[in-house]
Amino acid sequence: MKSTTQLDAKGLACPMPIIKTKKAMDELNSGEILEIHTTDKGSKSDLTAWAKSAGHELVKHTEENGIFKFWIQKQ
User: Fold this and answer.
1) Annotated catalytic residue, options 4, 10, 12, 14
2) Which single residue of 4, 34, 36, 59 could bond 71 by disulfide (Cβ 3.0 to 4.6 Å)?
3) pLDDT tens, residue by residue, 44-69
4) What are phi and psi of 66, to 5 degrees?
5) What is the pTM of this model?
């Protein structure tokens, strides 16, 4: 999936992935996609819930070798 920007949040524990994601999303234009990489297992539920509550779309998420990848489109 093509992203506009990538955010490396690997090694960070909650709530830092969410805080960094919010800051990065604030800098994007509507329709652009942020790709986030994290190792925090709680990120799956946290980022899914955050994207919904913030009005953005979680386009895709995968897990590969302990790294969780999320693609969130700014609405």
Assistant:
1) 14
2) 59
3) 999 999 999 999 999 999 999 999 99
4) 80, 5
5) 0.94
